[in-house]
Design goal:
The chain is mostly helical and about 210 residues long. The chain is about 75% helix and about 0% strand.
Length: about 210
């Protein structure tokens, strides 16, 4: 898989994007690695190092979430420790494929979502809302299965909003609308191209992979 990703990034840009739509794998991780290679080279170490950088960013976001939800600095320290030792994060942060990058986008989006829900002023909420939109686009444009994660984010927000008065919930929805629409609009052109390959892709989508 890692050698394949390197090979894809060496193709002409148009061919790379076309292959991305046929595989139903969004191209953001390919594009990031394509920009990275002229700067760092194509050794195994260089190709994997972007995942390390994204992993560090995910750790910082985990620490922020822990401190925000508990109000205690020690929680952030424990989040950093457990995150640095977590086998899935270690695995994802040392391979070339898109999974480490995807984890980081989702953790950043989760952090931003929590901040929007508990922001003290509309201005702060709007600032975090745009970070949410950027991280949402990053997640969608990295892995197609992020749609399931996005549904979970919506359920989390719904649970919080149902415990609030309608005016407060409406203000939150208003501030989240444009960042979410912007992320969807940026992702839509790839979706339109990928839909043509939905029936031709003989992996998850055509039902050839047993649920087990």
């Amino acid at each position: 898989d890692e050698a394949y990703l390197w090979w894809v990034t060496r193709l002409p840009l148009g061919e790379m994007l076309l292959l991305s739509t046929r595989e139903l794998i969004p191209p953001l991780s390919y594009l990031l690695l394509r920009v990275w290679q002229p700067l760092a080279g194509t050794s195994e170490f260089a190709l994997r190092f972007p995942s390390v950088l994204f992993g560090l960013l995910a750790l910082a976001a985990l620490a922020r979430i822990a401190r925000r939800l508990t109000g205690q600095r020690v929680a952030a320290t424990w989040a950093l420790l457990f995150g640095a030792l977590a086998t899935p994060l270690l695995w994802a942060s040392r391979e070339t494929r898109m999974y480490g990058v995807f984890i980081t986008w989702t953790v950043l989006a989760g952090m931003a979502l929590i901040e929007t829900l508990y922001a003290t002023t509309p201005r702060v909420r709007r600032r975090w809302a745009w970070l949410w939109g950027g991280a949402l686009f990053g997640a969608l444009a990295t892995l197609t299965l992020s749609a399931f994660w996005l549904a979970a984010q919506g359920l989390f927000a719904l649970v919080v909003l149902l415990r609030r008065p309608w005016p407060a919930a409406r203000a939150w929805l208003r501030d989240m609308l444009w960042p979410t629409l912007a992320a969807g609009a940026l992702f839509l052109p790839w979706v339109i191209g990928a839909l043509r390959s939905l029936d031709a892709n003989a992996t998850y989508w055509a039902g050839h992979l047993p649920i087990a």
